[in-house]
Amino acid sequence: MNTIIVILSVIIVVCLILILLVATYNHFQDYIIRINEADTNIDSVLRKRFDLLNKSISIIKANTKTDEPILDVIVKLKSKKLSNFELDRCLYEAINELHALKEKYESLQTCKDFIMIEINLMESESEIVGLRKYYNDIITDYNKLVKSCPSNIIAIIKGYKTRDYFDGNNVDKEKDSIKI
Hints:
Blueprint: H1 2-64, H2 72-77, H3 84-104, H4 106-110, H5 112-147, H6 151-158, H7 171-174
Helix pairs in contact: 1-3, 1-5
């Protein structure tokens, strides 16, 4: 009778441990799916911004009659494969250049197509800010799982590592590290 109680106790403990492991693994999978979803949404907005900036090149050249390189960063980006982090930083650089061109050439301030591009870029800015916050919130929770016990056991077994935040605030700090 005593052996049966011990065997049942061991079976119950093993089952509880297995349930905990499966639940933790599923929790990780949920975060990984959410991270990938957020990354895809950020990628979509960044592509939209890239397309707007690319489209603005011909508008700027047509309205300024200049032969100097316009938004050279965008032209160089066409042949590069960058992460969303790097692309975001490069696009900010191009947007700053776009604003400088607007100040330099008065004809751009009255061009309807150029104004529409600026409006769309501002709208995409609010989108990217929201998506960046969502992404960083998910990353915070995911990184807590990777670092805290007992979920860190699953993280070690599966090779899950902490992930970097999508931080648009350090654009100037890391701009020099991105070579185009």
